[in-house]
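Changelog-adjacent note: as of this version, every example in the card shows the full chain rather than a window. The one below runs 177 residues end to end.
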Amino acid sequence: MRALGPGSVSSVLKVILDVFRIVLWIVIALDALAIAAALLLSFNPEWLGSHIHLDKFDIQGPWLGPSIAAILLAIGLYLGGAMVVVGRLRRIFQTLIAGDPFHPDNVRRLRVIAATLAALEIGRYIAAAVAHTFLPGKLHISGGVNLTTWFAVGVIVVLAEVFREGARLRGEAELTI
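Full-length structure tokens:
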């Protein structure tokens, strides 16, 4: 099976990304509804119950609704980052299906993907720091450096430069008679 053009591996992967994008939109909408519900229910704490207990994690009192909303907001931000990555990948695959892998916009798209992955990783560090500061020993979020993520960011940055050079060479070839 060929990699570029209609009916290729690229078109199959784009369909998978399309489905994943729809699922992400649904999950983001549900997350937003859950945030609104948590905030609205915090005005009447009896509806939420007196506390939430998950393993070592225990929230009680008037901060139950806002705490749940903050956790859901962090999840929503992560999902938003995933949406950015999926959206850019979909556009890259559209150019691959069209047989134009070195489209100039793909350089920017790859750079946005790399920046988003880096931001998500830094966000994980911030979440871990907040958890360790405000909930010591109760909520474990790994704050260690994930070399796989940073390697992926580096690879994507290099690929962006390869695509930039390919777009430049294609532009020069189009000027040649």
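Structural remarks: Residues 102-177 form one domain.
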